[in-house]
From TrEMBL:
It comes from the Bacteria. Residues 233-257 form the Ice-binding protein C-terminal domain. Keywords: Signal. InterPro entries: Ice-binding_C. Residues 1-18 form the signal peptide. This is Putative secreted protein with PEP-CTERM sorting signal.
């Protein structure tokens, strides 16, 4: 399981394995520094807090320039940028900038604490991770193990992420479970495309779905009685209105003929 996957107490996100960052600024990060850093759960909480405070204050440890193949600053960095945030709740574990022009340059700020470094490009604010390389050639501090891509090359031909769709999936994952009549939390039982599954029992009889606003609702059997009750359906007022409009249109059409 990815180290980026946060617990329920942290901010949920859609995790994308690899995606393109060939158009910087197209999908800026719209969340807060605290939300982004909370997802790096392999970093100790105290270190995460220091990183958040630095980003909020703008207290960068280094000002760098990102090129197609390198990250240039006072320190030496591995060229890979990992765990990049897009949109509101989307995180891409590996990003590629393979289609950048050789002359392309993007300024960014680097924030470090206890050997962990984050990079925030100026153009988009996409909070990400970067690895500082110590003078001896190894990665500094915990950076040797932190993140998902240390020692790997940038992915080739990675797709561009659909940020809106990924954000929507993350928001669905954080929706509260439905509350039953007894007050316990339970899944709504709804499956894709509007179908619903059973909520218990060993037979194949459809079970009434639970709602967040009250007890179970009866299920209407096709062309037959109501499962779990004998309630007769009552047409909504809008249905009567539609019927009247339809009858009037039919009468007008008949007269015109």
């Amino acid at each position: 399981m990815s180290l980026l996957l946060a617990t329920a107490a942290l901010t949920a996100a859609s995790i994308v394995p690899a995606c393109s960052w060939n158009e910087p600024g197209r999908h800026p990060y719209r969340g807060t520094p605290a939300e982004a850093v909370s997802r790096y759960i392999d970093i100790p909480p105290a270190t995460r807090q220091r990183l958040v405070e630095k980003i909020v204050r703008g207290a960068a440890d280094d000002r760098v320039v990102i090129t197609r193949d390198d990250i240039l600053g006072r320190q030496t960095y591995a060229p890979q940028i990992t765990a990049m945030h897009f949109g509101r709740q989307t995180v891409c574990e590996q990003v590629t900038r393979e289609r950048w022009a050789v002359t392309a340059r993007q300024p960014a700020a680097v924030y470090c604490a206890d050997g962990e470094c984050l990079i925030v490009p100026k153009i988009c604010g996409n909070v990400s991770r970067v690895h500082a390389i110590a003078a001896g050639g190894g990665t500094g501090g915990r950076a040797a193990t932190g993140g998902s891509m240390t020692g790997r090359t940038m992915p080739a031909h990675a797709p561009e992420v659909d940020v809106d769709a990924a954000d929507a999936m993350a928001q669905l994952a954080t929706m509260p479970a439905a509350r039953t009549a007894t007050g316990s939390m339970e899944s709504t039982g709804y499956a894709p495309f509007g179908a619903f599954g059973g909520s218990g029992g060993s037979d194949d009889t459809p079970q009434p779905p639970r709602t967040a606003y009250g007890p179970a609702m009866p299920v209407l059997a096709p062309y037959g009685p109501v499962v779990g009750g004998t309630v007769s359906p009552v047409p909504e007022p809008a249905i009567w209105l539609l019927l009247l409009v339809g009858m009037g249109a039919l009468g007008l059409y008949t007269r015109l003929r």
